[in-house]
Amino acid sequence: MPNAKVLSEKQAIVAELTEKLKNASSGVLVDYKGITVAQDTALRTECRNNGVDYAVVKNTLVRFAINNVGLEEMDSVLNGTTSLALSDSDPIAPMRVIAKFAKQFNGEKFTIKAGFMDGKVLELSEINALAELPSKEVLQAQVLGTMLAPITSLAIVLKAIAEEKGGFVEAEPAAEEAPAAE
């Protein structure tokens, strides 16, 4: 049995992981066996740039944490080398970053084990489908562009009509009202 100091350190790690999992909107478990230090550094930089918390984790400690938050379905994948990518702001970010990186290796060295979103464990096909979605900012820009398209078209048509008629005509000043009789 481990001594009290080691046990308390592990309990603190499990408590921290549990808190991170509770606050995360989504996460992905990854088997990273076989990637080089340079590749790992590139992955960590990409994760940081996208607001994703990425760390190598011990399977037994993650098992306790995922059981604490009700994600027991992921227990079966906790073997071998495991890392965890979490995001509390953009739920698609961990899946997009990890799936992009996994495609570079064709699933040989770096594979997705499991993932979750909003407390629900996702199938691998769901993770890959979500990873293909554009970022939140891109989706917002697309929606805004769609909303502005009719207004822009109207402005172009009005301008063409005005140019066809010989330019814009200024409105005549309204006739001043006669002073009211007192």
Any low-confidence stretches, pLDDT <50, length ≥5? Answer: none
Arithmetic mean pLDDT: 83
The total of helices stands at 6
Biggest sheet, in brief?
5 strands, antiparallel
Structurally, how many domains make up the residues? 2
CATH architecture of the largest domain: 2-Layer Sandwich
Number of strands: 5
Q: Cα distance, first to last residue?
A: 105 Å
Per CATH, the superfamily of the largest domain is Ribosomal protein L10, N-terminal RNA-binding domain
- The shape is elongated
Overall structural class, as computed from helix and strand content, comes to alpha+beta
User: H/E element string?
Assistant: HEHEHEHEEHH
Fraction of helical residues: 40-55%
CATH topology of the largest domain: Alpha-Beta Plaits
Integer-rounded radius of gyration? 28 Å
Strand order of the largest sheet: 2-3-1-4-5
Please report the first level of CATH classification, the CATH class of the largest domain: Alpha Beta
Strand-residue fraction? 5-15%
